[in-house]
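quick q for whoever's on today - can somebody do inverse folding on this one?? i tried earlier but teh output was garbage lol. C-alpha cells:
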C-alpha cells in the first residue's frame, strides 16, 4: 500500500508537468483566475484559522483535463490557517476524478521539516457526479485514511449540502470516529455596481452536528 501511495504521488507530479506543457504546444486550452474574500474559512464543517481569509485560485485546462492552484490565507498576521493546494482533474462525462495535494505553509510561505509541495500526509483522491438533480462527491485521504462523502442539491434559491466524515484511522473529520460533520445552507446573488458590472456575493449557514459547532459565512468573488 505504501509503495502504491508513493508511486501515486509521482503521478501527480507527472500530471502537473503535463499541464504546464500544454502552455507550450498548439493544443487549445482555457485559463481562469480570481479570488474569494470570506469572513471565515470553513471547510467540510470545520473552521481553519480565524478572521477573514483571501482565497485566490488559478486554473488551466484543455478539453476534459484541468489543473490548478488554490490557496487560503488570513488577512491578519495572526489569523492562521494558511493553505496552498495543487490539483488535477479529468471529467469523463458522468464522472469526474480529481487528485489534490493539500499543503500548509507557515508564515512567509515556509514549510516545516518533512512538509511541502508533494510532501506531507495530505493527498486526496476524489470523485464526483450528478444523479437526478443530486450532486454526489466522495474524497479519500490516502495517508491519514479519512473518508468524506457529500450530497448536495438546490431547493429554490437555497443550495443544501450534507457531509459525512469517517476518520477511524486518525482524528481528521469526526475526532477519530464517524458522523454527520457538515450541514450547509447557501445562497448567492449579484449586486449591480455599474451597468456593465455586478459583484457576486454569497453566504452560508454551516452546522457541524458531530462537533456541535455552527458558522455563518459571507463571501465576495472577484
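ok took a stab at it. sequence:
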Amino acid at each position: 500500500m505504501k509503495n502504491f501511495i508513493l508511486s501515486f504521488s509521482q503521478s501527480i507530479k507527472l500530471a502537473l508537468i503535463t499541464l504546464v506543457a500544454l502552455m507550450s504546444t498548439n493544443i487549445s486550452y482555457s485559463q481562469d483566475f480570481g479570488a474569494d474574500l470570506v469572513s471565515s474559512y470553513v471547510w467540510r464543517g470545520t473552521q481553519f484559522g480565524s478572521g477573514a481569509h483571501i482565497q485566490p485560485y488559478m486554473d488551466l485546462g484543455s478539453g476534459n483535463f484541468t489543473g490548478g492552484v488554490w490557496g487560503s490565507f488570513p488577512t491578519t498576521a495572526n489569523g492562521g490557517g494558511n493553505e496552498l493546494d495543487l490539483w488535477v482533474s479529468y471529467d469523463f462525462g458522468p464522472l469526474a476524478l480529481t487528485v489534490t495535494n493539500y499543503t500548509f505553509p507557515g508564515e512567509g510561505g515556509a514549510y516545516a521539516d518533512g512538509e511541502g509541495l508533494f510532501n506531507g500526509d495530505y493527498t486526496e483522491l476524489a470523485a464526483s457526479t450528478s444523479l437526478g438533480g443530486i450532486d454526489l462527491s466522495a474524497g479519500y485521504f490516502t495517508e491519514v485514511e479519512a473518508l468524506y462523502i457529500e450530497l448536495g442539491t438546490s431547493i429554490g434559491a437555497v443550495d443544501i449540502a450534507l457531509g459525512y466524515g469517517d476518520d477511524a484511522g486518525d482524528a481528521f473529520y469526526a475526532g477519530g470516529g464517524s458522523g454527520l460533520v457538515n450541514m450547509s445552507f447557501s445562497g448567492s446573488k449579484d449586486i449591480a455596481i455599474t451597468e456593465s458590472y455586478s459583484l457576486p456575493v454569497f453566504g452560508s449557514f454551516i452546522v457541524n452536528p458531530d462537533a456541535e459547532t455552527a458558522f455563518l459565512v459571507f463571501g465576495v468573488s472577484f
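fwiw Residues 2-221 form one domain. also The helical segments are 2-21. so keep that in mind when u check it
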